[in-house]
Amino acid sequence: MSETTETTYKPTSPNSKLDFASVWEYDPAPESTANVKVKERYELFIDGKFVKPSKGRYFPSTNPATKEVITEFAEATQNDIDQAVKAARKAFKNEWSSLSGKTRGKYLYRIARMLQERAREFAILESMDGGKPIRESRDVDIPLVAAHFFYYAGWADKLEYAFPGKTPEPIGVCGQIIPWNFPLLMLAWKIAPALACGNTVVLKPAETTSLTALKFAELVQDAGLPSGVVNIVTGAGQTGAEIVNHKDIDKIAFTGSTGVGKLIQKSIAGTGKKFTLELGGKGAMIIFEDAPVDQAVEGIINAIFFNQGHVCCAGSRLLVQEGIVDQVIRKLQDRMEMLIVGDPLDKNTDVGAINSEAQFETVNKYLQIGLDEGADVYQSKCEIPENGYFIRPTLLTNVAQSNRVVQEEIFGPVLTVQTFRTADEAITKANNTQYGLAGGVWTDKGSKIFKVGAGLRSGVVWANTYNKFDPTSPFGGYKESGVGREGGLHGLAAYVNLR
Ligand code: NAI
Ligand code: MG
């Protein structure tokens, strides 16, 4: 581990009376990887075939839980992107845009069913390449991936009903750039609605988690999708920029950091390219004194510690009404002590590995910033594996609204805790960041849910729950959290021109 792990803070002793070591002991329950095949190297998927990158360059992908290199991906450069866009244009013109919606729907249903058949394989690969617990990839990510393909398959032959009185037409070739926190799910959010509406795509997965996208390319071949409808190109930021700047792309769909989102907006300004941007977040969870506290604590744990806090809509700020703050913190600490942090492929694991060395350093940097700003730091006292990129679930208390740890996206298992007295104060604090992606409220009173829900400037507000997703509901941000919506009917609208 890099020296940054040993920051100067020491876990404080919890106010707890439980002896956790004697409460939970699970035997290891590792998922078998015996039937999963990972090639030594993956090529680019262009025009229905796997092709070598023009410059012959490859880069490694590691398993962040072990730091072992598991495979290598091809680096796509300008010429490769050009080939991919040409293939997508040809497929758009000659075939896909003129197929009946019913036929496009059949292909999407086929993809959805094949994803379900191979769900376990995809889940294992997702956990190996990205570090998320198998329980998450198996029970959340991959089922939602299939659900998105099923959902948009259903729309493919009903587009005129989706937009009554208008004639929907596909946009053309879509360039899609996705991040590493939900690799295959972000691919599904992008590819399923695009294809349903008759567009073709050039998609770039994140450089640390491209494996499931390339396995998906194999599945696309097996499904017999016409060549060039889906093209998958791998590489880092430069490859993404080549897609953004390609002249024959009609739309850019991006999910990732606000910094890169702004760069993309600058690059395409004045070009007429359409775009949707899903960017960062700093979600606030507001807990009122009348809330069911145990249920709220479980929701908070889910909102920030599962998936290592690598969630753009994560609830990374907790706002607790003053009268119950001690109780909430004590219960949170008790629950944090029960979280199992470790091997992502173990079915008991709650918190897996931080996705990459770079992200590991970012989160540790923020922990140090928190200390420097005077926060009190509480971390679970669990053992963590020595070898990979792991960070203990962390609470930062004694923080101020102006602190960087309260304002900036940390994207790790780190929760800040503040207090409030009135609903208006909670709303003001919740809205006081550059972001506006998601928020949550816990209370027994419907009236408070409506008041807070209406007051929060964020794309999603969950009530008495958190991080619930469904293909039918739109998702997206206010302010610097992005432009446009994905999911549901709104997600369909982002992939059509209406006449
Ligand atoms: P990033 O925004 O650099 O990466 C996201 C995707 O954009 C990747 O596929 C990357 O290769 C690509 N990309 C990078 N530079 C590009 C450029 N100039 N033009 C086109 N594409 C480009 O995010 P990164 O560096 O991996 O993470 C940094 C921070 O971003 C995280 O700490 C987190 O705060 C935030 N983030 C937010 C996500 C979200 O879901 N909203 C997802 C991932 C990261
Ligand atoms: Mg990896």
Can you walk through the features of this model?
There is one protein chain. With 499 residues, the chain is of the alpha/beta class. It folds into two domains: 257 residues, Aldehyde Dehydrogenase, Chain A, domain 1 (3-Layer(aba) Sandwich), CATH 3.40.605; 180 residues, Aldehyde Dehydrogenase, Chain A, domain 2 (3-Layer(aba) Sandwich). Helix content is 38%, strand content 18%. The strands form five sheets. It has a seven-stranded mixed beta sheet with strand order 14-15-16-13-12-17-18, sandwiched between helices. The longest helix has 22 residues. The protein is globular and about 65 Å long. The chain starts with 40 loop residues before the first strand and ends with a strand. Bound molecules: 1,4-dihydronicotinamide adenine dinucleotide (NAI) and magnesium ion. The site of 1,4-dihydronicotinamide adenine dinucleotide (NAI) has 27 residues, from helix 8, helix 9 and helix 12.
Which terms summarize this structure?
binds magnesium ion, 499 residues, binds 1,4-dihydronicotinamide adenine dinucleotide, 20 strands, 6-stranded mixed beta sheet, Aldehyde Dehydrogenase, Chain A, domain 1, 2 domains, disordered N terminus
Short summary:
This protein is α/β, with parallel strands linked by helices and 499 residues long.
**Residue-averaged pLDDT, rounded?**
95
Q: Can you list the ligands bound to this structure?
A: 1,4-dihydronicotinamide adenine dinucleotide, magnesium ion
- Please tell me the total number of domains: 2
Radius of gyration: 23 Å
Q: Which structural class should the secondary elements be placed in? A: alpha/beta
| Biggest sheet features | 7 strands, mixed
Strand content: 15-25%
Give the neighbour order of strands across the main sheet: 14-15-16-13-12-17-18
CATH superfamily of the largest domain: Aldehyde Dehydrogenase, Chain A, domain 1
